[in-house]
Amino acid sequence: MNFIDLAGQQRRISEKLQANIAAVLAHGQYIHGPEIRELEKILAAYVGVKHAVGCASGTDALLMALMALDIGPGDAVFTTPFTFIATAEVISLLGATPVFVDIDPATFNIDPVKLDRAAEAVEKNDPARHPLPDTAGGKLRPRAVIPVDLFGLPADYAALGAVAARRNLLIIEDAAQSFGGEYKGRKACSFGRIACTSFFPAKPLGCYGDGGMCFTEDDRLAEGLRSIRNHGQGSDKYENIRIGINGRLDTLQAAILLAKFSIFPEEIELRQEVARRYNALLGGRVTTPGIPKDYRSAWAQYSILVRDGAERSDLMAKLREAGIPTAIYYPKPLHRQTAFAGLGYREGDFPVSDECAARIFSLPMHPYLTAEDQRRIAALFA
Hints:
By secondary structure, the chain is of the alpha/beta class. Helices cover about 40% and strands about 15% of the residues. The protein is built from 13 helices and twelve strands. The strands form three sheets. It has a seven-stranded mixed β-sheet with strand order 1-9-8-5-4-2-3, with helices on both faces. Strands 7-6-10 form a three-stranded antiparallel β-sheet, with no helix packed on it. Helix 2 (about 15-25) runs antiparallel to helix 9 and helix 6 runs parallel beside helix 7. The radius of gyration is 21 Å and the shape is globular. The model has no long low-confidence stretch (mean pLDDT about 95).
């Protein structure tokens, strides 16, 4: 059994994949070829925003977003510790400071109430209100928040938007896992000043390597993002108007994504069916993912909570012996990672993240998972 069945997907679109790749080989425009512009146009329309800017990875998308918004030293950028390191890594790379905020235990996404408290604590430089990073006495400016749409479920952007307006924060949506998801009738990647997604192969829409994209309604920001991804280019390749990065999306990867997107809406529907079957089979045995009203997950992962680490180890061992792969996402939250030790956070500062990290694990999830395979999985939870 596959954790993610990329081979099954590839068989469905093999002819289109081969034709798209052959077209790139024929025209030879491997950098900024026409497939890039076609993909950007199609995905911007799908999301419902004016601009999509392809780039080399989801990490580059986040980095470019922060650069376009002039985030840097002295700026506090709030985010969750229960995510992949890329979300906070890019903050530190630019000399800004990650300020972690604990999650909602039902959705695993950043808690808007705790965000408000954290922003107030930074404004007043008061660690009694919220755990703050060690900045050697330097006062931080609250500048931005990067909510993460974890496991495919968008964050609560209405509540986050209210906090952001009150605290004068820019929102950057980290939709690395949620492309295809929805919140109150709007698609993921349509929230905040800039939204970012990843086309890593395991994502709901993934290429065959690294890739990413930024989305925005703002013409000026879109222009900046296009410049930043290409070494800060101005009117031509030898005019550089800002410091940028080599963050270009390969034309071959765009061609692959165009082939994959031809079946993507159908695959999102199939993921809903797989999730519904899991919920019916496992409900009452473990804590299954909660999907609030008016939300739709892209189901990048199907993650469950069990009683404790011992039960998790036992269940994962049973599944492994039966040939069923599993995974633990984020066993050590970011506030306990060595890379962020200099911030001075401690275990227990973000108790919900710590508890989830000790109890969570993920089951196979992809559009082609059969009901029979899901029954095999569920039988091992009896």
